[in-house]
Amino acid sequence: MSYRMEVCVDSVVSAVNASRGGASRLELLTACICNAGRMEVCVDSVVSAVNASRGGASRLELCVALSEGGLTPTPGLLEIVKSCVHIPVFVMLRPRPGADFVYSPEEARIIKCDAAVLKKHGADGFVFGALTASGLIDEILCKDIVEIVAPLPVTFHRAIDVVRNPVGSMETIIQLGFTRILTSGGERTAYAGLQIIRELMVASMGRITIVPASGINSDNLGPILEVTGAREFHVSGRVPLKISWNQSKCKMGTGDDDTIYVTSYDVVARIGKVELEDVNPHLRGERVENHLGKTNLSSPGRDSNLDFPVFSSRAQHDKREKPPSVHPTKIQTSISPSQQSSFNTTIVLANYATELWKCCEKVEGKEKEETRGRDMITREPGTSASRPPRLHLFTLELDRTANGEGGGRRVGPGMMY
To answer: What is the pLDDT of residue 259?
Structure first.
C-alpha cells in the first residue's frame, strides 16, 4: 500500500525532519523565508508604507491622521499604497477621533459605506471596533461590518482597551467573527498592560490572535513577546521630520505644522531584527539543544542542530547595504515598483530551493549534486508589473511504500502559495 504526504516547510531543518518522518513531497513556503510574518506596522502615508515594507513589515494597517489615533483612509491612498508594496494592507474603519468608539446612526452608515467601497478598491482586511454607551461591544454594528467585508478578515482594534471587561468582551468578539484583537492591555503602552494582554492570550486558547500594540520598540519587544506569548505585534516606527521650507506663520490646525511623522525604515528594521531573533535564537548565539540532545553555543548565521546554514534573507540583509528610507520630497523617484528588486528576490529564493534540495539528498545518503537555477521560478501568466510574480519553487517527491522503503525521486516545479 503506497501513500503520499506533503509537508509545508520554511527551513532546512524542517525539510530534513519532514523527509525523515516520511514526507513524500515538500512545499517550500517563501513567505516564511522573507520574514517571520508577525510584524504589523500602522502607516498613514505612501512614504511610511514603503519604508515599513522595506524594513520587514509583514502587514500594514493603513489609516490617515495617526496623530488622532488613525482614521479611515481614502480609496486613492489605498490604491497607491497597494501598487507600491507587496504585503497585505488592512484598512482602518474609524470616521472620527475620540476614544469612546460610540457611533451615531449616521456615523454607522458612513462606516458601512466606507467598508464596501474600500473592499472594492483592494483592501486585504479591516480594522474596526464599536461600543455601546454602556461600555459594551456594539454587537449589531460589529456584526454588520463583518458581514459587509466578508470573507476578508477583521481585527477588533483598541476599543477593547476601554470596555468594562476585556476578557469577557473577547468572547463576544470571537462569536462575532473577528480574527484578531489589537490591544495595549487597557494601558497607554503594551509594556504597561502586559498582565491583561497575558490574560487575554490565556483565555483565547488560540481561538483568536491577540496582537499587542502601542509603544512597542526594539528595546521592549523581547520582554513583551516573552511575557505574553504573543505571535504577532503592532508598531508604528515613526520619527519626526521637520519641514524646513515652510516659513509661514499661518497655522492649518492645532498641531505642529512644521513637523510631520513618517515611519522609519531603520526603526522598523531594528524591531524586525529583534523579532527574527525571538523566532530563531540561533541568530543571537544562544545555547540550543540539537537533535542528539547536546547543548551547543551556536553562532549567528548557523544552525547547530544539523550543522546546516541558516538561510534567512533578513539575517543576510544586515551584511548588505540597506536601502535608504524614502523622504517625502523624493517620493516620485523612490517608490515606483522595482523590477530589479523582484529579480534579486527570485535569485535568493532559487538558491535557497537548490540548497534545500541538496541537504535533503545528503541526509538521505545520496551524493547527487544536481543543481536547479532560475528555471525553478516562473511568472504566473498575466502578472502585472505592479504585483510581484507568484513564486513556483521546487517540489521534492520521495516515492515510498508502506514499509518505508524509498523509491525514485523527482524534482520539479512546486506548488504556488
So the answer is: 82
